[in-house]
Amino acid sequence: MTDVVWVLGAGLPALAALLVIRHRLPVLFWWLVGYPVVFVRVLASYRATMDACGLTVPASAVQRATARVMGRLAAPVPPRRSLPLPTGSGLVMRLRMAAGQAPEDFTASADRLRHAWGAHAVHIRPTKPGRLELRLIGWDVLADVRPARRRLRSGPLLLPLALRRTGTGTSGTSAPCRTN
Questions:
Q1: Where are the alpha helices (DSSP H) in 88-154?
Q2: Cβ atoms within 10 Å, residue 52
Q3: How would you write the pLDDT of the chain (180 residues) with one tens digit per residue?
Q4: Burial (CB count within 10 angstroms: exposed 0-12, middle 13-18, buried 19+), residue 47
């Protein structure tokens, strides 16, 4: 009984702290909890997910011959990938496409990849011929936008982000654009 009390006594404050961190500091929560979970999920299901999305190619002749000698079937080959690298809002993987694959295939499968890996969004960008950058976004970064904590000073070369119909800046003062 005392073991359960100790576990609950340590577990409940830790859970409460994680919930507060998730609400107040989503980037810190991503680094502590979200990234490790998504990292393991992507690594564990990469081959199966790529196969389900139709992003694999048949095995090479050498792999098929080796599998035949061993009495197995040759598994389809997914694109080569780097380790998932963390970013402030998700993770990035660099993929090397196999012969016969096109970036459009990956772009068409982005929604399926998002769903399979539990991400908010997946963006595919070709970087070089035969190489892609797959970017997973962990959460909606625009859901809770907070203003900057300090006020920015206005000067002759600073422009406001938005102007009202009256031509005044968002702080209520006009911000002329001067070039010297």
A1: 103-108, 110-117
A2: 14
A3: 677 788 778 888 888 888 888 888 888 888 888 899 999 999 999 999 999 999 999 988 898 899 899 999 888 999 999 999 998 888 999 999 988 899 999 999 999 999 999 889 999 999 999 999 999 998 787 877 766 665 556 556 665 566 567 766 555 444 455 554
A4: middle
* Verdict on whether the full-model pTM lies above 0.90: no
Torsion of CA 84, 87, 92, 94, to 10 degrees: -90
Task: Map out the domains of the chain as residue ranges.
Answer: 16-137
**Cα Rg, the chain, nearest whole Å:** 25
* CATH 3.10.10 fits domain 16-137: no
DSSP letter at 132 equals E
Handedness of CA 115, 118, 119, 124 (dihedral sign): negative
Tokens of 12: 């409940």
Residue 97: φ, ψ to 5°: -75, 150
Distance between CA atoms of residues 41 and 152, nearest Å: 41
